[in-house]
Amino acid sequence: MARLCFSTLLVTLLLYNVAFCFPDYTSLAGLSARELDSIIPHLTIRALPSPPGPLNNPLAKLVNDPAHPWIAPGPNDMRGPCPGLNTLANHGYLPRNGIVTPSQIVTAVQEGFNMGNDLAVFLAYAVHLVDGNLLTNLLSIGGKTSETGPDPPSPAIVGGADTHAVFEGDASTTRADAFFGDNHSFNETLFDELTAFSNKFGGGAYNLTVASEIRFQRIQDSIATNPQFSFVSPRYFTAFAESFFPLAFFVDGRETNSLTLDLTVARGFFQDGRMPDDFFRSNISWTLGAIGGGVEVIFEAHPVLPGANNGTINSYTVDPNSANLSDGCKAYTDFVDVIVRGLYPSATGPLLQALNQNLDFFFGAISTSGCTQVPAFV
Ligand code: HEM
Ligand SMILES: *[C@@H]1O[C@H](CO)[C@@H](O)[C@H](O)[C@H]1NC(C)=O
Ligand SMILES: *[C@@H]1O[C@H](CO)[C@@H](O)[C@H](O)[C@H]1NC(C)=O
Ligand SMILES: *[C@@H]1O[C@H](CO)[C@@H](O)[C@H](O)[C@H]1NC(C)=O
Ligand SMILES: *[C@@H]1O[C@H](CO)[C@@H](O)[C@H](O)[C@H]1NC(C)=O
Ligand SMILES: *[C@@H]1O[C@H](CO)[C@@H](O)[C@H](O)[C@H]1NC(C)=O
Ligand SMILES: *[C@@H]1O[C@H](CO)[C@@H](O)[C@H](O)[C@H]1NC(C)=O
């Protein structure tokens, strides 16, 4: 992977006391006009292709096939908090180095797991807008496996799908809250808790009842132990969705309707990013609407509204300014108007153009949902 390295006095003084390399997959979000001026001339600006369309054959098929063997990531390969994307990279549906384009994410999640096109485009462009480099069209799915150990490097370099409280967030199923240090690695203590819940509520497997109970338990854990617990949109939405994802995507496509996930299979995905031998992808395309149905069931079991602790434990307070599950358009609008706008206060020229093009692709995923598109940034 080509890296841009420069050690101008400016960059040295501003950032580190060493020569600074700016990888071409690192997000330009949050940089000042001056920093952008020094970095952008060194980037290869790419034309942005439109997102891929849906699968031609949206049914189950063998996906752990001879063309896509599991290979453990090497020390320089990027892996992150998402077991779905890690699995796709380990099986070669995504580039094995973990540096990807949003189009590659869309194609891979559809081909490997039968994610519906609207959801695939929505997630891929949402994460790209926050964590990707909009000019090179590259995004890292996490950090180098050799660097994401106990002594993590600067978040600016880890980058990837890990911007806290936007995509990576609190109350994950098998990853600890950022407050406790490591927010992206598989956590055995949490998997043990998942196992106990599966034994108690699912007869030893992960099903919709377990998903509802463990989602609530993880929220209660964070309220009781993490003074900085934050559970507002968009994390609020992704937390519920990710509790349903294992039932949609990790269950073999010959038993899609069972919505029941064996725990050994679950561990393979969560811990090793690995499909079982002979794995078939889901037999239906999981669109935003289909996932929404599962989310609704999980929410209704324990209807926690968006909110946060206030700096002390056990102080969870509902945040009336956050979008809740009954207002998806507000979630979209706030994401664009507050989060993305806040990340790019100084975008002009080609960066502004790329930003608006990505925002168009992102809105394309929900253009038939009745939400009004936020006007282009100027
Ligand atoms: C389409 C693009 C996708 C993006 C951008 C994405 C991104 C992410 C991110 C950033 C997280 C971490 C959130 C956290 O802090 O817990 C996450 C979690 C998760 N993702 Fe993905 N993901 C995508 C697709 C998938 C797919 C296809 C699957 C399943 C095959 C999947 C399964 C999961 C699960 C189960 C979690 C929760 C992990 C846990 O809580 O322990 N994701 N994803
Ligand atoms: C999340 O983890 C990464 C890698 O360990 C770390 O650099 C980053 O600071 C963490 N985020 C927060 C908010 O603690
Ligand atoms: C695993 O998660 C638990 C509960 O959040 C936390 O106390 C523990 O420190 C985490 N372990 C590691 C190794 O991060
Ligand atoms: C989950 O499994 C348990 C134990 O078999 C069962 O009682 C429960 O009804 C299941 N939940 C769903 C939603 O099927
Ligand atoms: C998938 O669903 C179709 C109907 O939509 C059915 O004909 C086919 O047998 C199913 N395939 C599997 C592997 O269950
Ligand atoms: C946080 O919430 C707790 C419990 O609701 C309350 O006692 C405390 O005064 C609040 N602290 C702040 C800083 O708002
Ligand atoms: C959810 O949000 C909508 C508008 O954003 C608000 O009108 C509604 O009261 C909220 N629901 C709850 C239960 O707070």
From TrEMBL:
<feature type="domain" description="Heme haloperoxidase family profile">
    <location>
        <begin position="66"/>
        <end position="293"/>
    </location>
</feature>
<keyword id="KW-0732">Signal</keyword>
<keyword id="KW-0349">Heme</keyword>
<keyword id="KW-0479">Metal-binding</keyword>
<dbReference type="GO" id="GO:0046872">
    <property type="term" value="F:metal ion binding"/>
</dbReference>
<dbReference type="Pfam" id="PF01328">
    <property type="entry name" value="Peroxidase_2"/>
</dbReference>
<feature type="signal peptide">
    <location>
        <begin position="1"/>
        <end position="21"/>
    </location>
</feature>
<protein>
    <recommendedName>
        <fullName>Heme haloperoxidase family profile domain-containing protein</fullName>
    </recommendedName>
</protein>
<keyword id="KW-0560">Oxidoreductase</keyword>
<dbReference type="GO" id="GO:0004601">
    <property type="term" value="F:peroxidase activity"/>
</dbReference>
<dbReference type="InterPro" id="IPR000028">
    <property type="entry name" value="Chloroperoxidase"/>
</dbReference>
<dbReference type="InterPro" id="IPR036851">
    <property type="entry name" value="Chloroperoxidase-like_sf"/>
</dbReference>
<comment type="similarity">
    <text>Belongs to the chloroperoxidase family.</text>
</comment>
<keyword id="KW-0575">Peroxidase</keyword>
<keyword id="KW-0408">Iron</keyword>
